Amino acid sequence: MKRNALLLLLLTTLTFLSCNENDDADGDYADYLVARPLVMSKAEFASSVDILPPISIDESGKVYAYGDYVFINDKSQGIHVIDNSNPEFPRKVSFIKIPGNVDISVKDNFLYADSLMDLIVLDISDIDNIVQVNRLENVLRQGVFFPFDADIVEYEEFDYETEIVVGWQTVSERRLKSEVENRTDVIFDGFALAEATNDSGSGEGGSLARFKIVGEFLYAVDSHHINVFDISDLENPKDLDDIYAGFDIETIFNKGDHLFLGSMRGMYIYDISSPATPTFVSEFQHGTACDPVVVDDNYAYVTLRGGNWCGATESGLFIVDISNIENPELTISYPMDEPYGLGIRDEKLFICDGSSGLKVYDKTDVQDLQALNHFKDIVTFDVIPLESHLIMVGDEVLYQYEYLDNNIKLISQIGLD
């Protein structure tokens, strides 16, 4: 009996010590978002656009709605095409392979997409027979954007003469904290990135869009410029003079004769009454943070996401009074957790608050937003409030919601993996 009791005590002690050691070891580790470059040969890149059967998504990006279809960007890899003629039962149609793709915009069945520094034009009038009709080379100033949401950026040497970086792949990995803190290559040195970037009816994009069609013009922003294209001949866009617009530009939104550019430093407003030559009107400055912007008649709604490479330590919603377009002023701000895209429809305000889910507010009184819904336990990225219903893309999932009087209700979701 004594021997058995001693053995039991020994086993209990060893188990306790083992658990403590595991706890201590676990405390030395943390989860980090790691980004690595996607590399391909320049020869392959030049002829890389292809139409494929539906495939699993790798990393969901921006969302775009046009007619009965939803297009979802697979970051740096291409576009997933969804038949949404019945929002309750969306159906995967195909995948448009476009290396280096981040943004799209559509007008009268012509789809415009970036492929690094090139502009791709596709005829989508027959969705089952999509055809590339044009490729304008080296018309976009910046092709690969730095992965600001990553905690760690890693890359390996490659042949700069024959290969090119077409984007980034990000994954969550558990790393030893001390090793990460002592790394010398956590911050990307920019050399490989610089090498890569040197060589009718319109649809609706989300607030994270960098492409925007207004009338017969396509505006595409990079970190410093508005790239302007005359698309009066839809098949053959004409590359016009770029407009230097500011620093760290991330998103573009149109309201009437004005473009609202969201940047890491603030919001820039440009007049496009002469559409070929946007002219600066004013700016609203805030602390450095990642931010998109949407606008109604009197206010601009700006979400600021802090942490990681974005600069700021806090996140929130900023509501800016633009009744005097030449002198925008902050009205009020609200704290958020990790906001990405946002949208407005009538008196409703929708905010994709990252892993904190989708938040819906009544914005009748901007000084006192009223919470209507909070869909938790989902990761949210970008949203498009259509006239008939709401479209949202999250963590490899397409969600759709029905508008109700004072609320919204989930009507469908489809996994993209």
From TrEMBL:
SUPFAM superfamilies assigned: 3-carboxy-cis,cis-mucoante lactonizing enzyme
Lineage top rank: taxon: Bacteria
Keyword Signal: yes
InterPro entries from the UniProt entry: LVIVD (IPR013211)
Cleavable signal peptide: 1-18
Alphabetical UniProt keywords: Signal
Database matches in Pfam families: LVIVD (PF08309)
Official protein name in the record: LVIVD repeat-containing protein
Source species of the chain: Flagellimonas allohymeniacidonis
